[in-house]
Each structure stands twice: as structure tokens, then as C-alpha cells.
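Input C-alpha cells:
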């Protein structure tokens, strides 16, 4: 049964930024891991949490490329598509004896034009976003328990509304489509959140999935990207980024805000297994709504939160990782 999937009235809006979410919140003494915490949204999450006092570890597949500049955070190696790398990262973390107050599962592979597989034969966006984060989260459970109240925030997308789990062909042996592969991985992020919360809420580990909005960054954008961005209504005729938070088109600080909200906001205490957007719990909307340049549907729907599908995915994932 789906419950609590309705806005709280958080007081924030779609335009609220990371600074707004963290106003008055002191994260001193909190340990946080952000996967891909040097990328577009990840870097803003890292910056914001570190500025609020958290001790942040960025998990990056190539630490040399994870330039954080003036941001005060550690960087550790983690390749989510390599099970040995995930285990090594978790082993190193647990060996320090540190608790883990928030795990931000942010990294993803976005829209590969051609089918790519990991070394085990799994489609790469599913491998990165879902399998890697599933393995990482489970390996870090001792540290999450040690926090005495922890959050697992997994970054999903409005694409989770559309993304079907291809139960009989998860790796796209036929009919590969970049949008369908990304959608499957982002649906998996929400289903994982639902089942994770069901399993571990009693131990003080609560899970949320969050949609940041659509964020392409300030630009200038690569000329090859402009036709697609124009078609999606994301840039104007001069190639400048269009910002319209109510329509989901956000700055980095606005997009990262919902991720920070899910990771640390006390407004979510006592809740879990929910899908967030615009700095609140998202409304549930089961209407069929087409994706157009003027309308990017991103509310929750029953399919992404289905507890039976969530259990099924957990079991299938355990088998894939065995
Ligand atoms: N931007 C949007 O409009 C939007 C909309 C909805 C949802 N999201 C979600 O928001 C999250 C962040 O997206 P973004 O736009 O900030 O993308 P991004 O800049 O491409 O960041 C993705 C990050 O994931 C890391 N990564 C990729 N494969 C990895 C692997 N195998 N192991 C470890 N790290 C890996 C990348 O590291 P490298 O630097 O090594 O490549 C990068 O730091 C994603 O979950 C995405 O699905 C974004």
C-alpha cells in the first residue's frame, strides 16, 4: 500500500536553492558520502553540505578528475560498475569506524546513444544507477546503523514515471533505446528506495528518492547539444539556458536543493520510502501525461512506488549480484 506520498507543505518552492534548504541547519559531526559528488548536481550537493559543516566524502571513479577546488571534501575511488571497487570502497569506509549519516546515491550514466554493457553483461545505466548503488548501500549498512538515524537519498528522475522494468530482458538484448534504458534505471532507483525503507526503517535507516528537475547548467553549451535542447525547450534561440523552476527547468542550486532536502532536512524525519520533487514530497498523479517541451511530467505515480514490484526488483538484483 502506498502511503504518505503527498506534499507536506514544506514551505519551500520549486525555486528554492540549497542555501534556502540548509538555512539554520548545522551539519557539524555528520558524515556524508556523495557518489559522483564532483559532477554537475553532485558538486553542488557536496559544496552545500560541506558548507553547512558536514564531513563529505566524494566517491569518484577517477579521483584525479574529481577537482573540487575550494570545496572542503575528501575524494575516494569508486566505480559503481565494478563490484570489486564497490566492495573496496565500503571496506575502507567501515575500517575507519565512522558512522554514515547520509548516503547520497547520485552518480549515473545518462543516455548512451548505443547499448553499453558492464563486464557482467548488465546494461550500463542500470549497472551504474541501480546495481552499483544497491551493492554500495548494502555494504555500508553497518555504518548507516551506527549513525543512529540515517538517510539514503537516491537521485532519480521524472523519467521514473515512464521507465518500465523489462523483467524478461533487463539488458536490452533487443530493442535498445537510450530513453527506455535511462527510464528503467531511474524507475529502479525509486523501487529500490521503497523496498530499502520497508526493510530498514525499524533500524533507523530511512530512504528517499529525489527528482532534481531538468538541469543543463549555465552553458555555453556544446553546439552539438543545442538542437536537442531547443526541441526540449531548454535553451532560447541564442542558445542561452532557460530557467523556469515551476516548469522543472532549474539552476544547479535549485536542482540540487531537493537532493539536499532529502538527505538532511528534519522536515522528513519519521518518513521514508517516498519520491521527492521541488523540495517536498511529490504529489501522486496517475494520469497519463505526455512529455512535451512545455510540460515535463515528474509527479510520483503508483507504478514507481509499487511495493510488489519493489520486492521483485530486490530479489532479482540479489540474484544479479550473487
Ligand atoms: N541533470 C538533469 O537534468 C537531471 C534530471 C533528472 C535526474 N538527474 C539525475 O541527477 C544525477 C546527477 O546528474 P548530473 O546531471 O549531475 O550528471 P553528471 O554531471 O553526468 O554526473 C554524473 C556523475 O556520475 C558519475 N559516474 C558515472 N558513472 C560512474 C561510475 N561507473 N562510477 C562512479 N561514478 C560514476 C560521473 O563521474 P565521471 O566524472 O567520472 O564521469 C559524474 O560525476 C543523476 O542520477 C541523474 O540521473 C539529472
Amino acid at each position: 500500500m502506498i502511503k504518505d506520498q503527498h506534499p507536506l507543505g514544506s514551505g519551500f518552492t520549486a525555486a528554492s536553492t540549497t542555501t534556502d534548504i540548509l538555512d539554520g541547519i548545522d551539519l557539524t559531526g555528520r558524515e556524508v558520502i556523495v557518489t559522483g559528488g564532483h559532477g554537475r548536481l553532485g558538486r553542488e550537493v557536496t559544496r552545500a553540505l560541506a558548507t553547512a559543516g558536514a564531513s563529505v566524502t566524494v566517491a569518484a571513479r577517477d579521483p584525479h578528475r574529481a577537482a573540487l577546488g575550494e570545496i572542503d571534501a575528501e575524494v575516494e575511488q569508486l566505480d559503481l560498475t565494478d563490484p570489486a571497487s564497490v566492495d573496496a570502497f565500503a571496506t575502507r569506509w567501515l575500517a575507519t569506524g565512522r558512522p554514515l549519516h547520509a548516503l547520497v546515491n547520485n552518480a549515473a550514466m545518462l543516455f548512451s546513444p548505443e547499448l553499453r554493457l558492464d563486464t557482467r553483461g548488465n546494461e550500463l545505466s542500470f549497472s551504474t544507477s541501480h546495481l552499483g548503488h544497491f551493492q554500495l548501500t548494502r555494504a555500508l549498512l553497518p555504518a548507516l546503523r551506527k549513525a543512529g538515524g540515517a538517510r539514503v537519498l537516491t537521485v532519480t528522475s521524472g523519467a521514473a514515471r515512464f521507465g518500465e522494468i523489462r523483467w524478461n530482458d533487463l539488458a536490452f538484448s533487443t530493442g535498445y533505446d537510450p530513453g527506455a534504458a535511462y527510464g528503467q534505471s531511474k524507475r529502479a532507483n525509486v523501487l529500490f528506495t521503497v523496498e530499502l525503507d520497508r526493510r530498514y526503517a525499524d533500524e533507523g535507516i530511512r530512504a528517499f528518492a529525489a527528482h532534481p528537475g531538468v538541469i543543463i547548467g549555465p552553458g555555453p553549451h556544446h553546439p552539438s547539444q543545442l538542437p536537442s535542447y531547443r526541441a526540449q525547450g531548454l535553451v532560447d534561440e541564442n542558445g542561452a539556458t532557460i530557467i523556469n523552476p515551476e516548469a522543472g527547468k532549474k539552476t544547479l542550486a535549485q536542482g540540487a536543493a531537493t537532493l539536499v532536502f532529502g538527505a538532511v532536512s528534519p522536515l522528513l524525519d519519521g518518513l521514508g520510502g517516498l519520491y521527492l520533487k521541488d523540495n517536498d514530497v511529490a504529489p501522486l498523479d496517475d494520469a497519463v501525461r505526455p512529455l512535451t517541451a512545455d510540460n515535463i511530467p515528474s509527479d510520483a505515480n503508483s507504478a514507481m512506488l509499487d511495493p510488489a514490484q519493489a520486492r521483485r526488483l530486490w530479489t532479482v538484483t540479489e540474484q544479479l549480484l550473487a
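Residues 35-36, 38-42, 60-62, 65, 78-81, 106-110, 128, 155, 157, 211-212, 214-215 surround NAP (CB under 6 Å). The chain has two domains: 18-215+250-321, 216-248.
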